[in-house]
Amino acid sequence: MTGGLTEQLPPLTKHEALVEANRCLYCYDAPCAHACPTHIDIPRFIKKIATGNLVGSATAIFEANLLGATCARVCPVQELCEGACVLGSEHKPIAIGRLQRYAMDYAYGSGTAFPKADEATGKRIAVIGAGPAGLSCAGELAKRGHQVTVFEKRELPGGLSTYGIIVLREPVDIALAEAAMIRGLGVRFETGVNVGVDVTASDLRSNFDAVFLSVGLGMTPTLGVPGEEHVLDGLEYISRSKLKLADMKAETDVLIIGAGNTAIDCATVAKRLGSERVTMIYRRTKQQMTAYDHEYSFVKNEGVAFEFLAQPVRVVTEAGSVVGLECVRTRLTPHPEPVAGTEFVLRAKQIVKAIGQNRPSIALMLGVGTERGLIAVNGGFETSVPGIFAGGDCIRLKGAASTVMAVQDGKLAARSIHEKVMANG
User: Fold this and answer.
1) pLDDT-based confidence at 2, cuts 50/70/90?
2) Which of 5, 47, 248, 280 has the maximal Cβ count within 10 Å?
3) What span, in angstroms and rounded, lies between the C-alpha atoms of 148 and 425?
4) How far is CA 249 from CA 143, 154, 231, 365, in A?
């Protein structure tokens, strides 16, 4: 076991933060700010840390990103702001993510710098889903004085930040603290509410001036192999590691089906629980992995093994317990095709699948248009039904789905919603 299920990086000390902040060149028209999907003024917030103005630093972050505490922890900074740092080519890039966390930790620890709501407008907006896009949109609308109600089918707000991002990157209390900050702006949360069952489309139309859909994606697709009932869902596996860790135990041999960032997280959880052998199975090659390169390197260092060009065909059980997974070798033509006669069995005590998620189903209920199963929106994030907007993973046709992109969607959609409801009088 290489480490526990605790936050991977410790917070910066005051001295460390000052030293790091003073390394920044405070570039004009800074590449790091352009690389940030929410366009935080990074030189500005770092300069304020260097001068000891942590309230001003946190305020600068909140102005662009209401979920700055989450994004400081989970953003792929190597691919975004830190990857664009001008010091990166010759020197070590500024630790932007950790400095942002330093400022956000101060804000939440002191209860200062939180945004305030404007005078009430009397407009009512429903937000469906309390994930990053929904919280961002709800907060931005509340800042403008609108009355916002967030409907969430789970018992806790935060979406994947609460349930689907491993503790090494973000503990549950960070996600819940951000939701509490949004609630402090006057946003009302109704959790344990399933839209389409507990709240109907007619209810939404009659009680609200606009609706924002931030429902993410659906359940993990089925593998379609015999014995699949013994396979654990990857997102549920991560959720248990965050909220019900006492119910989990290390297994000697764990197989993870998939090679995206969620699959990497599942493998990390298994290894940190103390599993002896953790192997990721992918029917393509390393070059086709959807996980970030730095995540692949991280999990390799954790001691996780890989079986590339392998496709599951059957879960092997004895007396109702998992003992292995039968796979077949594949070749790329360019799509994976099984190679006859190459079947083999991998030992397993536990099998977890993390092979993506199904498309959202709420679109059919609300009658909004879709494209390749995802909710279709225009440049203002409005769907084919006037007054219904959407953002986050449920619209992400291009590019990698990520927390920071969902936050930006929510922010931009809030602007469009505000303009729409105010224009309607």
Assistant:
1) very low
2) 280
3) 17
4) 44, 25, 16, 40
